[in-house]
Please model this.
Amino acid sequence: MKEFIQSNRIVYDALAREYAFRRDNSGPYSEDTEYLGYSLLKHISDRNHLQVMEIGPGAGQILKYFEDNGCRTIGVELSQEMCQLCRIQSPNSIIINGDICEINFCIEQFDLIYMGAIIHLFPLQDAITLMKKVWSWLKYGGYIFVNTTCHAESYEGYSRKQDYPGEVYRFRRYWREDDFERFISDSGFSVKEKLYTDEKDRMKKWVALIGKKEIIHNNGKI
Model:
């Protein structure tokens, strides 16, 4: 297991209770779970037997949203403590405790893949590799949700997680918005929607991109 993965696993095991508390006591500027889940689900008109995966479901609230809306749901979570929260919150979901980089799913298995506050936990080259896997797992015509915080410059390294108590350090990549959008496009997805959240109480500005894996014909995309 790579060092940054091991480091982040320790951090999120330690923060699981805090995540559960924030799930149940959201801040005044936090986006509603239904809003975030629906921002992805609304792009699919035929919702029968949808296969949805969430990478890094944390405390499980988004996974529960998809489960409650009739989707067949799988969550892949690095932290064992977070997995326990997910299994309680979303009991009908399949929860896999492991490193997403070491897991393989079938080609074109999922209709939707949700990646909330997760892509910035990977170094750039590992993020590129992960998105190649995500692209292969998604069905043509399927959608992804990917978000991160916005910064003046793109850079990466280890830093203290400042919005949670204690001295917990993790690997973090900081994305400039235009670099982030280019990264998603270069990963093979057409950006269909952009959402912004200004968490003033936590001094975080978020950008979320909804991307589509386009169906390719001889005359181009449709």
